[in-house]
Design goal:
Structural class: alpha/beta
Distance between the termini: 39 Å
Radius of gyration: 22 Å
Helix content: 40-55%
């Protein structure tokens, strides 16, 4: 590296540290069959810890059927996909996975991408580009992947206030007859609140707009078969595109969109983020299919998960921890300061063997720094009690706020 260029990167890192936004990742080794327990490879050596912030919400990443599907397929078909689907063709497990996803959401077709970020970024931008003069109406708290998709589309955009139906209606009415795409999440993962999807669909139908719903934090988790909030609220058939991930409740990796056959085929045919990217390996696709099939027929994981999430919230509240209001399985705990947030996580890990990653700006606004706790069906009552006790010790030791109050800018 040229010496005169290196300074740019040193300065960039220094800015992050000055803004208290420099991220440190723990070196963790998850243990199949012992989730949520893991080994932390700390500077002082290996230590057993309990993970409380995984997005493998239902522990499907260690399910015997999912592991068996991955291992058996890798032995039979090898480890790689052989290239892009445009060059190497469709590996058959991907075809089966897309059929399973289309069925999950009651759609004609589905298309799998390498990640949920890519499926949003590519899906939104491609759809909007294919509709001349398209106006995108995007919720103010949409995920960065959705924001990037909107930006890359080059289309005009309007941001409506979070979950504000009145504001959305104003923008739709003012847009007239031009093509319109309403882009929302079903479940917002930092606050744990849910979009008013039925009302959004009604407005979209009234004003001739398409509806694109990101279900990444809800697929597998809600609905009789794990179809997400759209299934739970009975509006999947009213949503034009449902986007999801295979990397959270399904315990694998990858993202997807599901919708009408022509819409999905158009994205497949035009999207650079699909055409020029190596496909998911067959073993990963097979594992994801096994997870989806299991969760379609089994509700026990969802039921246990909801019970333990509710139990965790109550235990923390009783311990005097400022749990922020949440309608779902997300358990956000208010801290309100980036340094204290990092200090709390460090103390939980080093003193109590509990791993929770701090959530700071830009993931959440400044002054709303928090811990984001995600219980699973495998966090039993003993682990919940240990968490509550550890959090109480940390809150006392660091003199953290006991109430949810936004810090002044």
């Amino acid at each position: 590296m040229k010496a005169d260029c290196r300074g740019y990167f040193v300065d960039a890192l220094a800015r992050l540290r000055d803004e208290r936004r420099y991220r440190v990742f723990a070196d963790l080794e998850r243990l199949a069959g012992r989730f949520p327990r893991a080994v932390w490879h700390s500077p002082q050596g290996a230590r057993d810890v309990v993970i409380w912030c995984s997005n493998d919400y239902l522990g499907m990443g260690q399910h015997p059927d999912v592991i068996a599907a991955m291992v058996d397929t890798a032995k039979r078909m090898g480890t790689g996909a052989g290239g892009t689907r445009n060059i190497a063709g469709n590996n058959h497990p991907l075809i089966e996975l897309e059929r399973e996803l289309a069925d999950l959401h009651g759609k004609e077709a589905a298309l799998v991408f390498t990640s949920g970020y890519v499926s949003n970024e590519t899906g939104i931008s491609t759809l909007a580009k294919l509709m001349p003069d398209c106006l995108i109406l995007s919720d103010a708290l949409n995920h960065n992947s959705m924001i990037d998709g909107v930006r890359q589309s080059g289309s005009e955009k309007k941001i409506f206030r979070h979950n504000d139906i009145g504001h959305l209606e104003e923008l739709l009415a003012a847009a007239g007859s031009r093509p319109k795409l309403v882009v929302v999440e079903s479940l917002y993962s930092m606050d744990g609140d849910v979009a008013p999807l039925a009302a959004i669909c009604t407005l979209a139908e009234r004003h001739g707009a398409m509806v694109y719903v990101d279900e990444v934090h809800a697929v597998g988790m809600y609905g009789a078969r794990g179809g997400g909030i759209t299934e739970l609220h009975g509006v999947a058939h009213r949503c034009d595109v449902i986007e999801g991930t295979l990397a959270k409740a399904f315990g694998c990796m990858g993202g997807y969109i599901a919708g009408a056959r022509d819409l999905i085929d158009a994205v497949r045919s035009y999207a650079p983020g699909f055409i020029f990217t190596t496909a998911l390996p067959p073993a990963v696709a097979a594992a994801a299919t096994a997870a989806i099939r299991h969760l379609k027929r089994s509700a026990s994981e969802r039921e246990r998960h909801q019970a333990q999430a509710a139990h965790t919230k109550m235990a923390l509240i009783q311990a005097g921890i400022p749990v922020m209001a949440s309608q779902t399985h997300i358990v956000p705990v208010f801290v309100g300061d980036p340094e204290k947030c990092k200090a709390a996580c460090d103390r939980l890990l080093e003193r109590h063997g509990i791993y929770i990653q701090p959530i700071n700006y830009p993931t959440v606004p400044k002054g709303l720094e928090r811990l984001r706790i995600t219980p699973s069906p495998y966090h039993d009552d003993e682990l919940v009690a240990r968490l509550a006790s550890a959090m109480a010790e940390v809150w006392d030791a660091l003199d953290l706020p006991r109430r949810y109050a936004v810090a002044a800018e």
